[in-house]
């Protein structure tokens, strides 16, 4: 296929021909079970849960627990993201239970309900950068500094960000899913209050409350802000960009290639770099923003 | 039920349920006050002030 692309004058192809070629390449990377993401999602959640008894019993120092818990929250979202797109197994497939298990379990450290994340994420894909309908639009910012300012403001009780997912669910007739958020957050608060008043407030702050804030900001930066910046265009080839992270692909959690995810959401995260490299000439021809990657 | 939910998720509940014991524990850990009532009362004052700010202004850090 590489040779086909190299020997083909892409500029001479019609939109339809380009489309066929693009889909042929993308198709090679789809339909594979991302076992790495499965183990990552379940393992990460189990390590996070294990931290609590390990730190409270003194087997792991609190400072080390804080670092591990922060990493756990940062790493919590992406396996669920694979499940949200049915990449592990689609509806009716034998491994569907695993898809749903990973989806629910991996986001426990973030205290986010999987069904809400899936429903709102689909809306984000459908309406990326739409000021009215993209439920992640208020994560956009003019610059890096502005992103962190907005991240602080979005955390405040009066922030409109608090209602973004609820409004999206209401607009799409899925308000019943809000019960998931209510129950999960109530359980989280009751757990935190009970532990705090039992003499473990500092431990809970460093094992869950602060890691959750850091992790959410980190995830928003790399998943929502960086790949959609400046976020003022809509359309399949212009609403998401490739970018070169100065901290590399691991630290940016593969989001340099997020444009591939928006074009072909069924390609597993681990295969987006390879798919990007093969699709790059076509994306360039399409006028995508490739950010020097 | 709606009232219980709005109380549980209010900034003041978070201040009293979590920040109060957290500040109390921090004050003792940093040896700013002796453990017992002085630390508990100081923790209560700080947590309640923050809780009131967040509850009334809608922001824990003033800016919004």
Give an account of the 3D structure.
The complex is a heterodimer of chains A (293) and B (64). Chain A has 293 residues and is mainly α. Helices cover 61% and strands 0% of the residues of chain A. The two termini of chain A are 21 Å apart. With 64 residues, chain B is mostly helical. Chain B is built from 3 helices and no strands. In chain B, helix 2 runs antiparallel to helix 3. Chain B is globular, with a radius of gyration of 13 Å. The N and C termini of chain B lie far apart (29 Å). The interface between A and B is medium-sized, with 22 and 24 residues.
Q: Low-confidence parts of chain B lasting 5 or more residues at pLDDT below 50?
A: none
Mean pLDDT across all amino acids of chain B: 94
Q: Main beta sheet of chain A: strand number and arrangement?
A: none
What oligomeric state do the depicted chains represent?
Answer: heterodimer
- Coarse morphology of chain A: globular
Helix content of chain A: 55-70%
Q: How much of the polypeptide of chain A forms β-strand, as a percent range?
A: under 5%
Radius of gyration of chain A: 20 Å
| Gyration radius of chain B, rounded | 13 Å
Q: How can the largest sheet of chain B be summarized? A: none
**Gap between N and C termini of chain A, in Å?**
21 Å
H/E element sequence of chain B:
HHH
Which structural class is indicated by helix and strand composition of chain A?
A: mainly alpha
N to C succession of SSEs of chain A? HHHHHHHHHHHHH
Helix tally of chain A?
A: 13
Strand tally of chain A is 0
Q: Overall pLDDT of chain A, averaged?
A: 95
What is the CA–CA distance across the termini of chain B? 29 Å
Give the helix proportion of chain B (percent range).
Answer: over 70%
The pair of chains with the biggest contact is:
A-B, 22 and 24 residues
User: How many H/I helices of chain B?
Assistant: 3
């Amino acid at each position: 296929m590489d040779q086909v692309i190299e020997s083909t004058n892409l500029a001479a192809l019609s939109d339809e021909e380009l489309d066929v070629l693009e889909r042929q390449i993308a198709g090679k990377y789809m339909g594979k079970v991302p076992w790495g993401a499965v183990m990552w999602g379940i393992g990460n959640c189990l390590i996070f849960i294990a931290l609590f008894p390990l730190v409270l019993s003194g087997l792991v120092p609190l400072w080390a627990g804080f670092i591990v818990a922060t990493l756990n929250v940062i790493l919590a979202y992406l396996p669920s993201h694979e499940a949200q797109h049915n990449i592990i197994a689609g509806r009716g497939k034998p491994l569907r239970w695993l898809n749903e298990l990973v989806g629910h379990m991996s986001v426990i450290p973030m205290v986010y309900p999987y069904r809400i994340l899936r429903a709102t994420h689909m809306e984000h894909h459908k309406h990326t950068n739409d000021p009215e309908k993209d439920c992640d639009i208020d994560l956009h910012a003019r610059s890096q500094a502005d992103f962190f300012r907005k991240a602080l403001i979005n955390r405040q009780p009066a922030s409109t960000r608090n209602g973004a997912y609820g409004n999206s669910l209401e607009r799409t007739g899925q308000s019943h899913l809000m019960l998931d958020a209510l129950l999960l957050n109530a359980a989280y608060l009751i757990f935190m209050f009970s532990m705090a008043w039992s003499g473990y407030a500092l431990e809970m702050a460093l094992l869950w409350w602060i890691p959750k804030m850091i992790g959410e900001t980190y995830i928003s930066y790399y998943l929502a802000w960086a790949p959609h910046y400046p976020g003022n265009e809509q359309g399949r080839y212009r609403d998401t960009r490739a970018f070169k992270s100065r901290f590399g692909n691991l630290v940016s959690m593969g989001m340099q290639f997020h444009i591939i995810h928006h074009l072909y959401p069924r390609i597993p995260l681990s295969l987006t770099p390879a798919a990007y490299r093969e699709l790059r000439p076509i994306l360039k021809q399409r006028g995508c923003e490739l950010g020097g990657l | 039920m709606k009232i219980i939910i709005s109380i549980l998720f209010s900034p003041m509940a978070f201040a009293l349920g979590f920040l109060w014991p957290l500040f109390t524990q921090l004050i003792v850990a940093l040896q700013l006050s002796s453990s017992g009532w002085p630390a508990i009362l100081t923790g209560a004052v700080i947590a309640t002030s923050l809780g009131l700010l967040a509850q009334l202004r809608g922001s824990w850090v003033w800016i919004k």
